[in-house]
Structures are given as C-alpha cells and as structure tokens.
C-alpha cells in the first residue's frame, strides 16, 4: 500500500478486498493491524484514480456488515473522506461510495447520525 508504483498499491488494495469480503476474521485483522487507516489515506491522497477506486473497494469489503470496522472508519474521518471521493469526477468512486453509504446505513444507526451531522 505504501509502494511507489500505482500498480502495486492498487493490486494490494484489490487483494485486501478479496480476502476480507464476507470474512469476519480477516475484516477484524485488517482493522486491528492498521490497514484500514492506510486505505483511508490512499482513498484521500493517492494521485492515481485506480488506486483510489481499489482503496474504496477494500474499505467497503472490510467494513461490510462489521460494526467495529464502521466505527473505526468513522474515527478516521472516513465518512468525510468518502464524501469527498463521491464528489470527484469519477463514476466508479461515486457508485462504490454511494453503495457503501447505503450498505453501512443499514448496519449502523451511528453511520446515519454521522452522515446527517456532516450535512
């Protein structure tokens, strides 16, 4: 995730997404080992759009149906980062971001409150 080559960063994010999808053990490990933190930074700051999309894919897979991951995402200002990503001129970011907001809202009332508080 910290490599200099966009293909490595996007590939690492894709691998994290595939491993963590519907896998509570891996979801918990990716949160506790700090990978969610790195992915939020990648979504927010990476200069490569493909890396941003893959970071969002991984974040979505890690946090799907996982309240602890959603809470950590909120602590990292992930919702603010996600709203900024949705506002970029990239249809994939917009689609994946809106899907994540919708899915997370069904899992946690706290997500709804945080999104409403953001405006």
How would you describe the overall organization of this protein?
Helices cover 80% and strands 0% of the residues. The chain is an all-alpha fold and 119 residues long.
Tell me briefly what this model is.
Helix content is about 80%, strand content about 0%. The protein is built from eight helices and no strands. The longest helix is centred in the last third of the chain and has 17 residues, at about 90-105.
Strand content: under 5%
Which ranges are low-confidence, i.e. pLDDT below 50, for 5 or more consecutive residues?
A: none
Rg estimate, integer Å: 13 Å
The gross shape turns out to be: globular
Number of helices: 8
Short descriptors:
single chain, 119 residues, mainly alpha, 8 helices, globular
Secondary structure blueprint with pairings:
Elements: H1 6-20, H2 24-32, H3 35-45, H4 49-63, H5 67-75, H6 78-86, H7 91-107, H8 109-118
Helix pairs in contact: 1-4, 3-4, 4-7, 6-7, 7-8
